[in-house]
Amino acid sequence: xxxxxxxxxxxxxxxxxxxxxxxxxxxxxxxxxxxxxxxxxxxxxxxxxxxxxxxxxxxxxxxxxxxxxxxxxxxxxxxxxxxxxxxxxxxxxxxxxxxxxxxxxxxxxxxxxxxxxxxxxxxxxxxxxxxxxxxxxxxxxxxxxxxxxxxxxxxxxxxxxxxxxxxxxxxxxxxxxxxxxxxxxxxxxxxxxxxxxxxxxxxxxxxxxxxxxxxxxxxxxxxxxxxxxxxxxxxxxxxxxxxxxxxxxxxxxxxxxxxxxxxxxxxxxxxxxxxxxxxxxxxxxxxxxxxxxxxxxxxxxxxxxxxxxxxxxxxxxxxxxxxxxxxxxxxxxxxxxxxxxxxxxxxxxxxxxxxxxxxxxx
Length: 362
Ligand code: UD1
What we know:
By secondary structure, the chain is of the alpha/beta class. The chain has helices at 7-24, 43-49, 65-82, 95-106, 126-137, 146-154, 168-182, 185-188, 204-207, 210-226, 235-244, 264-273, 282-291, 306-309, 320-331, 348-361; strands spanning 2-4, 30-32, 56-57, 88-91, 111-116, 140-143, 162-164, 197-200, 229-232, 256-259, 276-279, 295-297, 313-315. The strands form 2 sheets. Strands 3-2-1-4-5-6-7 form a 7-stranded parallel beta sheet, with helices on both faces. The protein has a 6-stranded parallel beta sheet with strand order 10-9-8-11-12-13, with helices on both faces. Helix 13 links the parallel strand 11 (276-279) and strand 12 (295-297). The longest helix has 18 residues, at 7-24. It starts with a strand and ends with a helix. The model has no long low-confidence stretch (mean pLDDT 97). Residues 6-8, 35-38, 41, 62, 93-95, 126-127, 202, 235-236, 239 line the site of uridine-diphosphate-N-acetylglucosamine. The site of uridine-diphosphate-N-acetylglucosamine has 18 residues, from helix 1, helix 5 and helix 11.
């Protein structure tokens, strides 16, 4: 059984479902927790990525952390009870991930965690808590980059249950890139390829404090005088801007284009053609590294250090001076071009299927 709930989960699960089907034809079920429910945050991802429709939708929707996590646990427990399960796979670091892992562990059902071992060492991030707890109780830890293996070892999680398999998000990217590029989304917005910045922000640390959000939006609007900016606005960010009374900053004007969250292929097309990406998304840090597109990461830390050490990402926090310096460096052409990352090769899901087949025989 695969449990998915939020946008990045859909992208990670799609290749794993496909690889398991191709390999051994084992019966698979998909549970959608309903953490993300808007058509543009959910349905379209299933369609574009060829992810089978969920067998069950828990329809939990939004809520604060305790409510959302508890609702998922209560509803998911009933689903687990009705099915005879050999393994439950959970993905990434969202509330749906930890909620499902907790339920299964308490019911004696083995859990596999895809994207295990990542650590930002910043426990003020909800995702970090989700990662640490999920890894502590998972039976199979499927790791995307070497730092993850090291982090788990430090937490005394080691041995055969830890497997470095590579990055499934890159599997999806590698599969979708050619079709995505044909969409020429930037041109549809009147942009010239390699002559615009793509912006996304949604982390609580950047959007929940009205002062921080307003300062960032003003800065990015200034950037749009130098290079056009396409801003893909996450629902959380739009809602925060409305609460903060600064939603007028989202109004488009020359060089400043705001758009709703894009579907997978459209977003990939925009990333691939961008001069730079400015984001606080973990997934986009990885995707820009693969695409060799400069990425200004609006965070003080990252659980994906390889994107900074070998990739095209730099941590700039939410300090306007640091962000501006990095922005100007990209424009002057002074930016690392990045390297290929081992096992980010489009075959991570095949390796996961292999690990699961071996594990099942034990
Ligand atoms: C969640 C994940 C985050 C991930 C992000 C990807 C957690 C703790 N956070 O953050 O790690 O990077 O997904 O997008 O799990 N909303 C809608 N429609 C939707 C979904 C959400 O309008 O379909 C709005 C609601 O107002 C909601 C808010 O967005 O309250 C936040 O949604 P939520 O799922 O709680 O967290 P994200 O910020 O999306």
